[in-house]
Amino acid sequence: MTLATLTFSAEITSLMASFGVDEKALKGGTLAVRSPINGETIANVAEISTDETRKAIDAAHKAFLEWRLVPAPQRGELIRLLGEELRAAKIELGRLVSIEVGKITSEGLGEVQEMIDICDFAVGLSRQLYGLTIATERAEHRMMETWHPLGVTGIISAFNFPVAVWSWNAALALVCGNPTVWKPSEKTPLTAIATQAIFEKALKRYIAQGGKAPANLSTLLIGGRDIGEILVDHPKVPLISATGSTAMGRTVGPRVAARFGRSILELGGNNAAIVGPSADLDLTLRGVAFAAMGTAGQRCTTLRRLFVHESVYDTLVPRLIKAYGSVTIGNPLEAGNLIGPLIDKGAFDRMQHALDAARSAGGKVHGGDRVHGEAASSAYYARPALVEMPEQVGPVIDETFAPILYVIKYSDFDQALALNNDVPQGLSSSIFTNDIREAEAFVSDRGSDCGIANVNIGPSGAEIGGAFGGEKETGGGRESGSDAWKAYMRRQTNTVNYGRTLPLAQGVKFDI
Ligand code: UN1
Question: What is the mean pLDDT of residues 275-291?
Answer without folding.
Answer: 98
